[in-house]
Amino acid sequence: MSLRIIISVTSDLVTDQRVNRTASTLKEAGYKILVIGRRLADSPELSGRRYRSLRFRLWANKGAAFYAFYNIRLFWYLLWHHADILLSNDLDTLPANYLISKIKKIPLVYDSHEYFTGVPELTNRKKIQAIWKKIESAILPHIKYAFTVNDSIASLYKQEYGIDFHVIRNLPETNRTINRDKPLLRRDLGLPSDQFLIILQGAGINIQRGAEEAVMAMQYLDNTLLLIIGGGDVFPVLKEMTITLGLQNKVRFESRKPPNELALYTYAADLGLSLDKDTNINYRFSLPNKLFDYLHAGIPVLASDLPEVKNIVEKYGIGRISKSHDPKALATHIHEMLNDKEANRLWAKNIAAASQQLNWETERNKLLAIFNSIEK
How does DSSP classify residue 233? Predict the structure, then answer.
């Protein structure tokens, strides 16, 4: 009889590509899967999932109350429902999972999507950060099975807790079905066919992620449209800035999209932006999904000078690194990248080769190896 895995995460599952890929892979490998998230007032319906999902409705959706009630609800659900293995995504789901794993004596796997206690929302709130750090330090040394998104974060956890984290990167599946005809895609999406199109995407476009500077850079660019897709704390600021600077014809916003729909916009673009700033340890060592989404869409990337991102961009020759977030400097990079035909031919060749290595088909085996070792 196949083993049942309950996967928990605090997102609403709609745009969480890592959780979706993980759950789908484990389902295909023969496990019974239930993914638990939360449902927000504006959460779209889930469709096309290969596994069962459940989203909690909570009366609090932010702050300490949210995290407390989510874990209490999760604890009681896990207590009364059978699971052979628990998979906890990020520190904010770990308390309930850890307690249940001890009570029921079942294996717990931990996936850290980021260096949680180093996010800017916590670095500026020392007391709250200290609470999360205590929770982390109380539990992590007892975790046997753990993985994270890149080598830098794995090294940080090794230094702090002596735990060996496996590395499973946020790499997309190879998409062989999407129409790659840019003019046709743009027509269907209502995008201009006579302008360059640059894209900045992300479910968490928050402060210190370079979005403000990207908008300001559009003052110095002609015949170019910046498409910002996703959500985040800074979205209202960006929209107001666009109006203040009179850039309504140069900057367009789209709300969060399911992965398959988002991919259409990405394939329609000419250049992708990944501009996180080195303002906190979490951003410093980030390796964003969007970097690989751009790669698989066949477009080069303009990225900020962060070690994990720089390593990918320069190792595979898939774009350019900007050492400055000055809007004029960004505009110069963007203009040169869009108009350098020779560089674009080289990037296209390198991107095609890199996508054959940097994909979920090669990464999924690492995930399955972890779960296979649990069964033994």
Answer: T
Q: State the Cα–Cα distance between residues 207 and 303, nearest whole angstrom.
A: 16
CA distance 296 to 263: 9
Tokens representing residue 350 in the block: 């390198």
Number of H helices, E strands in the chain: 16, 13
> Which range is least confidently modeled, 20-29, 110-119, 217-226?
110-119
Task: Write the pLDDT tens digit of every residue in 310-323.
Answer: 999 999 999 999 99
Q: Helix, strand, or coil here: 181?
A: coil
Helix (H/G/I), strand (E/B), else coil: 237: helix
Location of structure tokens 């209202």: 236
pLDDT tens per residue, range 164-204: 999 999 999 887 667 778 889 999 999 999 999 999 998 78
What is the token pair recorded at 144? 């046997």
11 vs 6: CA distance, rounded Å: 15
- 3-state SS of the chain: helix, strand, coil percent to 5? 50, 15, 35
Going by the DSSP 8-state scheme, the letter that residue 198 receives in this structure is E
In this structure, are residues 126 and 167 in contact, taking their beta carbons and an 8 Å threshold?
A: no
Sign of the CA dihedral running 205, 209, 214, 217: positive
pLDDT at 308: 95
- Pairing state between β 4-8 and 166-167: unpaired
Q: Secondary structure of 205-232 in the HEC alphabet?
A: CCCCCCHHHHHHHHHHCCCEEEEEEECC
pLDDT at 41: 85
What pLDDT shows up at residue 376? 47
pLDDT > 70 fraction of the chain, expressed in percent and rounded: 98
Report how far apart, in Å, the C-alpha atoms of 277 and of each of 205, 209, 259, 282, 325 are: 12, 6, 25, 10, 8
Q: Give the C-alpha separation, 355 to 363, whole Å.
A: 12
Residue with tokens 């753990």: 146
- Could you tell me the sign of the dihedral formed by the alpha carbons of 33, 34, 38, 42, in that order? positive
Token couple for 181: 């005809």
Contact between residue 74 and residue 93 where contact means Cβ atoms under 8 Å apart: yes
